[in-house]
Amino acid sequence: MTNTEKTYTNTATWGDSKSSQETTVTRTVKEISKGVEQNGSNLEYSLEINPAGKDLNPGADTLTLDDTLTIPNDVKAYLDLESIKLYRFDHSKDKHRGVIISPSLYKFKYDSKNHKIHVELQDRMPCVLVYTYTIVANKNGNYYISNNANLAGVFDTQYGDNFNINLSSASGSQSKVVLTKVDEDNSTKLLSDAGFSIEKREKVDGKWTWVWQDPKDVASTQAPTKEVTIDQDSQVKKNVLVTGSDKNKGKISFTKLSENALYRIKEVSAPEGYRLSDQYYYVIKKEKDGNITEDNLINNLDTDVKKEIDASQDQNKIKSKINFFESTGGSFYVSNKYARLTINKSWVDKDGNVITPTSNEVSLSLYRYKLLNENSTVNVKVNVTNLQYKNETFTLTKGSKIIAKITDINDLGTIKDENGINYGKTYVMGPFSSDTDVNISIENGGYSLKFESVAPSPILDKNNGEFVGNIKLLKDKNWIYSDDNLPSQDDKGNKYVYAVKETSIKGESMSDYKVIYMGNYIQAGTINVTNQETGDKKYTLPSTGGIGTKKYYLLGTLLSMLGVIYILMKLGKGGLFRKEDHS
């Protein structure tokens, strides 16, 4: 927490007398704080981040926020990506929400499986992050839901409470299963025109198989579709659903899925500039008021499809790879990696409002660096009575950490290291710089134990940065530059990452702007370069042509002198030039 001081002066006047007293008030300001408002099945979270505008990450221009929602096993949570807003912190405004900050000044990623939000934003920028989760339960009741946020790896805030969730409050807005297509590096960027096939697992002539679903059988007849080539060898073309635009941007709504049936969905046509995903997404929408559990539904699957979903046929791993939905529906998210390198230019004032620059051209230099392939293998051995994992093996970039977490509020398990030290629900292991075996044990439960790895920043061979060339961003081309032909690796398999540096602004001074880079050092994707006014711009009249600035200064001085003479003459009538009366 930060202590801020402000001095207030109170002055009282009576007659010709004055009295002043100064009072210094010290106020404690938290680096991060959280609040939540419930509206039916929706929980709107509000995080006040660095309201004092302090430098929380010395040596860097950005800092990270990690925010994780924890829910009971019998509850689903769906983040509304369109609800995400970042406001400038303003103490005078309602809920401290000032102007909306330009999306070019931050990056937002969402891991829907772990309900984890990751935001990269500017250091020293006081702001308020707002987002909404829709909570869906299989029965009415009170559910304990907690939310933990960590800023810059140091400052934490947590909010947990019991929320009354009523099934009827969710049914109106969540009556369908919605696929949302997003950019892999920025979850707030919704992608249109991605085509998806959908198949249903059915028994045909006594044998289980996948059956192609026509769009009209699983979605509204008004849903957008297009014809794509499904089989390159036979050139078979079929009609598939595509993610929408406008108010349904990036979304496909499945409104006619059979209950308790297994579907698999696959991307067959990627948006322009994006890599096509080869992953299957499995979906089951459960029946209303049904007693069948998710484990029952998995047990009812045929052996072949279990092997397809997970080769080990492990029950918990299969469950983690299927998107289960209550009868009221919900959302799942499919991300795509941008295949080309794009440089995008934005301009904002000192408060983050979008502005139109006077310049029409900016120059940048493009560099590439080798991404060193240094990995380590970590084998985590788990001693637990109710085994979910016997052991897990991770191949990690050196410097990575592994987080073991008990994810269900009702799971009483706690995690101990090999020395018997109890770390409660969360244990962070690492960082790891070599091949390692780690032993942990679980007491009193552990059925909801999950692992995740956290990679460090890219390991770059910074001594061998290579100048690639100069780039010009032009106003008449919407300040965008793209390149599809940059090599992704050298002849030894070392991957390249790319970064840019702004060098000049045509017709303007670089000193008038702070240059903010979001996304530098990437293999492909979008680098956002934002010029933010410093507030120190000076505007000077031209010194040639017209009457020039010097004559303006002389004219101003002359007018000032005339004003003084006029005042003295007025005073002379009964003041400074008054004649004395000797009578």
Descriptive report:
This protein is mainly beta and 583 residues long. The protein folds into 4 domains: 32-165, Immunoglobulin-like (Sandwich), CATH 2.60.40; 177-336, Immunoglobulin-like (Sandwich); 341-373 and 460-533, Sandwich (Immunoglobulin-like); 377-457, no CATH class. The chain contains 6 helices and 37 strands. Strands 15, 16, 17, 18, 20, 21 and 22 form a 7-stranded mixed β-sheet that branches. The protein has a 5-stranded antiparallel β-sheet with strand order 3-4-10-6-7, with no helix packed on it. It has a 5-stranded antiparallel β-sheet with strand order 8-9-5-11-12, with no helix packed on it. Strand 1 (2-14) and strand 2 form a beta hairpin.
How are the SSEs placed, and which strands pair?
Blueprint: E1 2-14, E2 17-29, E3 32-39, E4 42-49, E5 62-70, E6 75-89, E7 97-100, E8 106-111, E9 116-122, E10 127-137, E11 141-151, E12 155-165, H1 167-171, E13 177-183, E14 186-190, E15 195-204, E16 207-212, H2 215-218, E17 225-231, E18 236-242, E19 251-254, E20 262-269, E21 280-285, H3 294-299, H4 303-309, H5 315-321, E22 322-325, E23 330-336, E24 341-348, E25 361-371, E26 375-383, E27 391-397, E28 400-406, E29 414-416, E30 426-432, E31 436-443, E32 449-454, E33 466-474, E34 480-483, E35 495-505, E36 513-518, E37 525-533, H6 548-572
Parallel strand pairs: 13-23, 21-22, 24-37, 26-31
Antiparallel strand pairs: 1-2, 3-4, 4-10, 5-9, 5-11, 6-7, 6-10, 8-9, 11-12, 13-14, 13-19, 15-16, 15-18, 15-20, 17-18, 20-21, 24-34, 25-33, 25-35, 26-27, 28-30, 28-32, 29-31, 36-37
